[in-house]
Every structure is written in C-alpha cells, then in structure tokens.
Amino acid sequence: MNAENSATIRFYQRYGFEPVGRIPRGFLDNGVGSDEILMMLSLEGDLVSVNVIERRHFG
User: Fold this and answer.
1) Which residues contact 33 (CB under 8 A, 6 or more apart)?
2) Residue 13 — left, alpha, or beta (φ > 0 → left; ψ -120 to 50 → alpha)?
3) What are the residues whose beta carbons fall under 8 Å from the beta carbon of 16, sequence distance 6 or more?
4) Which pTM was predicted?
5) Which DSSP string do the residues of 35-51 spell out, in sequence order?
6) d(CA 5, CA 19)
7) Confidence bin at 50 (pLDDT 50/70/90)
8) How many Cβ atoms are within 10 Å of 37's Cβ, its own excluded?
9) Residue 23 clears pLDDT 70, i.e. is over it
10) 9 Cα distance to chain centroid
11) Measured between alpha carbons, how far is 59 from 54 in angstroms, rounded to an integer?
12) Domain boundaries along the sequence of the chain
C-alpha cells in the first residue's frame, strides 16, 4: 500500500497486520512515485506473508 496513506495503514494495523518491508518508489500515482509498504499478519502463532496492495485504477 502507499506509504503516504496513513489511514489505510492504521486500518490494517488495527486488525493485526504489521509492516515488514518497504519498496522505494514502488507505488506510482499520476507519474509520482512513492514508497509501497508490505504488511504481514500472524495467524495462530505462524507467520503468514500477506501482500496488501492498495489497488487504484488509472484512467
């Protein structure tokens, strides 16, 4: 998800997701790059990698 979207990050953190990585300029919006955050959710004590990508449609 876009690292600048703090509301979305808080939403996922509220449900137990934790940030585990950052892709510099991995998110492109109208020609402007910003970092993308990868998040992970632990299920029943096991770490399960979950890629949470905020999808946007570009016209």
Assistant:
1) 25, 26, 27
2) alpha
3) 41, 42
4) 0.62
5) EEEEEEEEETTEEEE--
6) 13
7) low
8) 23
9) yes
10) 7
11) 16
12) 6-49
* pLDDT score recorded for residue 59: 39
Question: Up-side HSE of residue 12: CA atoms within 13 Å toward CB?
Answer: 22
pLDDT band, residue 51 (cuts 50/70/90):
low
The stretches of 1-59 forming alpha helices (DSSP H) are 6-14
Residue with tokens 């990868």: 38
C-alpha to C-alpha distance for 25 and 4, rounded to whole angstroms = 11
Averaged pLDDT for residues 21-31: 86
Is the Cβ–Cβ distance between 37 and 19 less than 8 Å? yes
